[in-house]
Design a protein that fits this description.
Helices cover 31% and strands 29% of the residues. The protein is an alpha+beta fold. Bound molecules: [(2S)-5-oxo-2,5-dihydrofuran-2-yl]acetic acid. GO terms for molecular function: muconolactone delta-isomerase activity.
């Protein structure tokens, strides 16, 4: 199942710099592992915003929820999920 996921990051301006650096490092490692695992096949920065648009490829709504709720930045993000279905005009879908 494919999902379009938009993540808007809102780190507190007064966040301790060491906590911030540690959280961002853990976020990067976690997201890159999911990308290597094929669960997170696309991630794009939205130009001019501390936001990304991503595609997740997972088995279920529950798996997506588990993956995104374990993101180290999860407490600091607004996340919008859109489930994707095959478009009838998609030439790849036959
Ligand atoms: O920077 C972001 O867009 C938030 C988050 C998503 C992956 C990652 O490494 O950080």
């Amino acid at each position: 199942m494919l999902f379009h996921v938009k993540m808007d990051v809102h780190l507190p301006p007064d966040m301790d710099p060491d906590v911030r650096a540690d959280t961002l490092a853990r976020e990067k490692a976690y997201s890159q592992q999911l990308q290597r695992d094929g669960k997170w096949p696309h991630i794009w920065r939205i130009t001019g915003q501390y936001s990304n648009v991503s595609i997740f490829d997972v088995a279920s709504n529950d798996e997506l929820h588990q993956l995104v709720s374990n993101l180290p930045l999860f407490p600091y993000m607004d996340i919008a999920v859109t489930p994707l279905a095959t478009h009838p005009s998609d030439v790849k879908a036959g």
